[in-house]
Amino acid sequence: MLRQILIIALVLTFQPLFAQSNHDKLTEYTNFVKVQQTAPFDYLTQKVKLYHVVTLGEDHWVRDHMEFLSDYLRHIAADTTFHLDALAWESGNSIDQGIADSLMRSATFREDLALQILRDAPDTYGWPYAEAVDALRSLWEYNRKQQKFTRLLLLDPPYMLQMLDGEKYEYTLSRDQSTANKIATYIYTGKRVIYYAGSSHTQKQFHAQYVEKSKMYAVQATAGKILATLYPHQVFSIKLWGGLMGNNGYIPANDDYHWERCGDGIADEALRTCGNKPIGFDVVDSPFASEKVSDFFHFDYTDRMLSNANGSPYYADETMDNRIDGIIFFRPVDEFTVPHIEPKIFNDDFIKRVSKRTKGKVNTLNDVLNYIKQHHPTLANECDKYITE
Q: How far apart are CA 49 and CA 62, in angstroms?
């Protein structure tokens, strides 16, 4: 009983300190945000003009991020002060590069080619979103208005698609290494690229998996990390503001904001206090620079992750300025929505491929939609629109 009383007393003693700390942090963020004046499209254009590669980290299953890309491409279509040589696109396989080139050179938008590219995206059911189709359409429109070729650069290595389809494959490079190699060719040939992919690939970080047999970590660098290491002055990493990626894509989130907010929502509150004005800004010299990665993304390091004896790339003091160079905020997290399903992706041939990939669990469009619901519950309501009795 005495121990419980002491714990309660300690909590009551330190509560005002915690509240004061959060209040000071909120004030710091608010003071920073209110003086930022650069609109998102202007900010992105500034960076594209200054750097050969601008990585744009998005959150999967957030419709608004795909729409931001489409809107930006349409916004710059008539701007002849610079030219975008390629949109490096995560959700497509390099085996379809010829199809992508044909799509961008076509006199009319070939939706059939766009759908084929998205069928070959690195997920069991492809990337079946209307907003993804529109992003490819917006790049095609950019090509038409610029009258100068811009490549849709497909990034996934062939073995990813062969592995999904149960075919024989030869592992070459990791997805991120393969991506970095493709994009690097644009840097040393003096061209300019927007690399649009999930933020776990665009951020300058390591991915690591612990191997029980050897008691060591197998470590791989992200494409963003590789490119920034090779070309530190030619690559700029931007994160599109969002919630915790995946927390309501893979796992349902019990959060009032639907998408659980990063860093306890203090930055979100600062943005709201300043009227949620759309802005882009550099992380350096901002409150985000010193924000610990573990606090921002809500996770705790284990002793094994922080060991120096097992090849772990993790360290407790890693801050957000180690991961990203800039942030674009254009809409509050609580207004984000999920993408629309594009059922035309699921023709008979593709449903047969998905059936093979799922060992016969999926045989109809209804089956595909229920499969998506099972694995990505945030898309449940959207899938229900197309499920028939």
A: 27
User: Can you list the residues of the chain whose pLDDT is less than 70?
Assistant: 1-20, 245-258
What pLDDT, in 10s, does the model give residues 192-241? 999 999 999 999 999 999 999 999 999 999 999 999 999 999 999 999 99
Pairwise CA distance, residues 86 & 120, whole Å = 19
* Residue in the block written with tokens 């199809």: 99
In the chain, % of residues over pLDDT 90? 83
Q: Evaluate whether 186 touches 198 at the Cβ level (below 8 Å).
A: no
Three-state DSSP class for 354? helix
Closest CA to 284 of 229, 323, 228, 231: 323
Starting from the edge strand earliest in sequence, which strands make up the sheet with 193-198, in order?
151-156, 86-93, 193-198, 53-58, 235-240, 326-329, 279-282
Neighbours of 169 (CB within 10 A): 15
Which residues does residue 329 pair with via DSSP β-bridges, in sequence order?
Answer: 279
- Per-residue CA distances from 173 to 208, 312, 374 (Å): 16, 21, 31
Q: Which two three-digit tokens encode residue 340? A: 């629309």
Name the β-bridge partners of 194: 54, 87
Residue type, 82: F
- The answer to pTM > 0.85 is yes
